[in-house]
Specification:
Blueprint lengths: L7 H5 L2 H7 L31 H12 L1 H15 L4 H11 L5 E3 L2 E3 L4 E4 L6 H13 L3 E5 L2 H6 L5 E3 L4 E3 L10 E5 L10 H16 L1 E5 L4 E5 L3 E5 L10 E4 L9 H11 L2 H15 L7 H17 L6 H17 L7 H25 L4
Parallel strand pairs: 3-10, 3-11, 4-7, 7-10
Antiparallel strand pairs: 1-2, 5-6, 8-9
Helix pairs in contact: 4-5, 4-10, 5-12, 6-9, 12-13
Length: about 375
C-alpha cells in the first residue's frame, strides 16, 4: 500500500512549493500559537489595555506630569535638529499623528512631514533616523537612491510557482515610522521598476494603502504608516506639510554632536518620551460645536483679508496641526488658545518657505 497516497501534502504541493513552505528551522523559526490577542499598541512600557481600571491610574499619573515631559522632548529634538525649535514642534506633531478614521478613500489624521533644507549626503539624516528609532516601537529607514528605487521590490507580489507571497519594502507593520532619506538621491534615470516604486511610495503617503501585486490583479491593503521625508530642496514625493530646516548651530563635528545627544539622555527620560509618544496617539479627540463655529468664522475672516493665500487645504492642515498640538499637551478637545497657536505655527512655517523661495528663485 502506497503511504504517499494518504499524505495530502504529497498530492497537492509541487517540489518548489514544499521547498518554500518547509524551510529548515535554522532559517525560519517556528512559532506555534494557540491563542492570540490583538494588542491596542506595541509599546511594552504601557499597560496592554488602557481601558482597564488599573491602567487608568497609570494614564492619569502620566498625564499629570505631561507638561515637563513635552518641554524636555521639545528641547531634545531642538538639539537634534541643530537648534531649530519650530522644526522640533512639527516633528512632535508628526510623531503623535495617526490615521484615526477613513472617509470614503481619504485617510484622516495622516501627517506626512517633509523636512527640507537637510545637508546633502550628510550623516545628519542618518542620525535623525537613529533618534526616531530610539523613540518609537517600530521604524524603518528607506534610502532613496536611484540604485534602490530601480532594484528594490517595494510592493509584495505573488510567486505562483512557489505559491507564496514575496514581501516588499512597504509591507510594514501598522504604526511604523518610515523615514525616507531623499538627500541620497543623485542624478540618474529611473527605469520602469523605479517609476512603479515611486508611485507605490506616493500612494502610501497620499492614500495610506499598499497595492499587493497578484500578477492578474492588484489588491489594496490599507495601512497606517508615519512618513517623514528628509530632503535638500522640496521633496519629489507628496507630503502634508513641508518644514524648511533653519539650523541655529553648526557643529564642527556632526558625528560627535549627534552621538553625544543620545548618550546625554537618561534611560528613564528616554522611557518617558517613549510613553508620551505612544500614549497620545491612543487618546480620543473632538471639537465642540462652539469651537467649530468660531474656527469657521475665523477662516472666513482670514479669506477676506487674503483670499489668494488661504485655501481649503490650509484650513485642513491648520486643523490637523491644532489637533496634534492639543493632544501633545494632553488635551482631548480643541481650545481657542490651541487654535491660535496652530495658526501662529503655520504662519511661521509658511514665512520660512516664502523666504526660501525668494533666496532660491522658484525652487519651492
Amino acid at each position: 500500500r502506497d503511504s504517499s497516497a494518504l499524505d495530502p501534502m504529497e498530492c497537492m504541493d509541487t517540489a518548489e512549493e514544499q521547498r518554500v513552505h518547509s524551510p529548515p528551522a535554522s532559517l525560519v523559526p517556528r512559532i506555534h500559537v494557540i491563542l492570540a490577542q490583538k494588542l491596542q499598541h506595541i509599546n511594552p512600557l504601557l499597560p496592554a489595555c488602557l481601558n482597564e481600571e488599573e491602567s487608568k491610574t497609570f494614564v492619569s499619573n502620566f498625564m499629570s506630569e505631561l507638561s515637563p515631559v513635552r518641554a524636555e522632548l521639545l528641547g531634545f529634538l531642538t538639539h537634534a535638529l541643530l537648534g531649530d525649535s519650530l522644526a522640533a514642534e512639527y516633528l512632535i506633531l508628526h510623531l503623535i499623528s495617526t490615521v484615526y478614521a477613513r472617509r470614503d478613500v481619504l485617510p484622516l489624521g495622516k501627517f506626512t512631514v517633509n523636512l527640507s533644507g537637510c545637508p546633502r549626503n550628510s550623516i545628519f539624516t542618518e542620525h535623525i533616523y537613529r533618534i526616531i528609532q530610539q523613540l518609537v516601537p517600530a521604524s524603518y529607514r528607506l534610502q532613496m537612491t536611484i540604485e534602490n528605487m530601480n532594484h528594490s521590490r517595494f510592493i509584495p507580489h505573488k510567486d505562483y510557482a512557489a505559491n507564496r507571497l514575496v514581501s516588499g519594502v512597504l509591507q510594514l507593520a501598522s504604526n511604523t515610522s518610515l523615514v525616507v532619506d531623499e538627500t541620497q538621491l543623485e542624478q540618474g534615470q529611473l527605469d520602469t521598476t523605479g517609476v512603479h516604486n515611486v508611485t507605490a511610495l506616493g500612494n502610501l503617503i497620499t492614500w495610506q494603502k499598499v497595492d499587493y501585486d497578484f500578477n492578474y490583479h492588484q489588491m489594496e491593503f490599507p495601512c497606517n504608516i508615519n512618513v517623514l521625508i528628509t530632503s535638500e530642496g522640496r521633496s519629489l514625493l507628496p507630503s502634508d506639510c513641508q518644514v524648511h530646516l533653519q539650523p541655529q548651530i553648526i557643529p564642527p563635528n556632526m558625528e560627535e554632536y549627534m552621538n553625544s545627544l543620545l548618550t546625554a539622555v537618561l534611560p528613564s527620560v528616554l522611557n518617558k518620551f517613549r510613553i508620551y509618544l505612544s500614549l497620545l496617539r491612543l487618546l480620543d479627540y473632538s471639537i465642540s460645536d462652539e469651537v467649530t463655529k468660531a474656527v469657521e468664522e475665523d477662516f472666513v475672516e482670514m479669506r477676506k483679508n487674503d483670499p489668494e493665500s488661504i485655501t481649503a487645504d490650509d484650513l485642513h492642515r491648520t486643523l490637523l496641526v491644532a489637533r496634534f498640538l492639543s493632544l501633545s499637551a494632553g488635551q482631548t478637545t480643541l481650545s481657542r488658545e490651541r487654535w491660535l497657536r496652530a495658526k501662529q505655527l503655520e504662519g511661521l512655517r509658511k514665512a520660512r518657505l516664502q523666504q526660501q523661495k525668494c533666496v532660491n528663485g522658484n525652487e519651492l
